[in-house]
Amino acid sequence: MTIREIQLNNQPNEILKKYFGHSSFRPLQEIIISRLVYEKKHSLVLMPTGAGKSICYQIPAMIFQKGTIVISPLIALMQDQVDALKKKSIPAAFINSTVSSADKKERLQKFIDGKIKLLYVTPERFRKKEFVDEIKNVAIDLLAVDEAHCISEWGHDFRPDYSRLSEFRNILGNPLTIALTATATPDVQKDIIQKLGIEKNEIKIFHSGIERPNLRLEAVDVYDEKESLKNILDVYERYNGSGIIYFSLIKTLDEYSQLLEKHKIKHSIYHGKLEAKQRKRISRNFIEGKAKLILATNAFGMGIDKPDIRFVIHAEVPSSIESYYQEIGRAGRDSLDSLCLLLYNQKDLYTQMEFIKWANPSADYYSRIYDLLKTKMDAVNAYGIEFLREEISYKDKNDFRIETALAMLDRYGIIEGEIENKNLTLISELPFELSNEQYLQKKLLRDNKKLLSVVNYFRTDHCRKQFISEYFGFPDEPVCNNCDICG
Per the confidence metrics, is the pTM higher than 0.90? Predict the structure, then answer.
């Protein structure tokens, strides 16, 4: 199917049916698409995981004559989305750090020549002069910003490059823009609009709330492993279908895996320490129904488009309402009854408090890491992260601030390369955000408040869905009648 043939059949409903296999739009999708295609006006879209955000820009991209750039921070998800579009005969490609220089050049040229309708890029691409020099001369019809909460320092996955989106839009000629996210509090919504460089009266916010009537929200107070296992086994027996059990710690995940094996319950495990090929195989088997139960850390789930997940259990307390909401959104996408169960153990709070500490190094810590990279980079590349750990943490293997510090230095463009590949280089000075203790203390306080919100969610004596709706700034959501409090 050529791009010209796609454009000749340019009615949104026709494209939806022919390419995506749906006879009708989900709530808000058609309104958002019409605003982009016919009114040419900006939109901020807040929809829960699995509600069909991507179609809101993919269908307009097929209708518009010029190309669409999609900015996404998630390399794995980006590849999955492009693969899915190609299977539908929709011309799409991605450019990120996993792509060879030759392929990057070829894909960019095809986009410039109009042979590709959707080009997915990471925000880091705009650091590259050669990319900017090429892309600034390309006329595009639409800019889509996926995972838009990454724009905001108030969000739960702040990416510094996202804060430059106003600059990126200017490079691209300030095109029509749609920003999309599943999780954005009122503060984050304001920040997204500001960082995009769009006036408040020029953009409309669409939100579907969390109205997923088929999802039942429950929370149970558990004292120990025995009680947690009893609840897990009960859910497994009652809900016939696929399920995800989330854990904060790989160690705990492994312990429960052994317990389930003793009960002869088949399952898979998924976490960030598995090899990439192994993770991909496990994900594929789960999506295809070859494995019905998966025990996972929060590394699992992004891009998992499986409609028949009957239950999502959090066996350990999550770090925030944002991450909890995103993870339970993977349940019941086929609109059939599904359970979202939180097992609340007071001891889990100490684990999350440790995570928060590791995720928030002090200004002094960043300064020490920076000075070490500046003076001993050869040794860092030669001996790897353990050399840094020995120099900074005195071999304390339970101190993961080094991983956080390196990740943030990379996100802020202070370093390039990979410590594992022994090609790490220092290319810039420490920014204000990593050198100002007052600023960092504010972030630490916000993270602790997010954890407190999870505690309040468990303790609430009002509707659980209402609690989440109010957290995200939608106080008028109706009572659900489908949680352990409402009935």
Answer: no
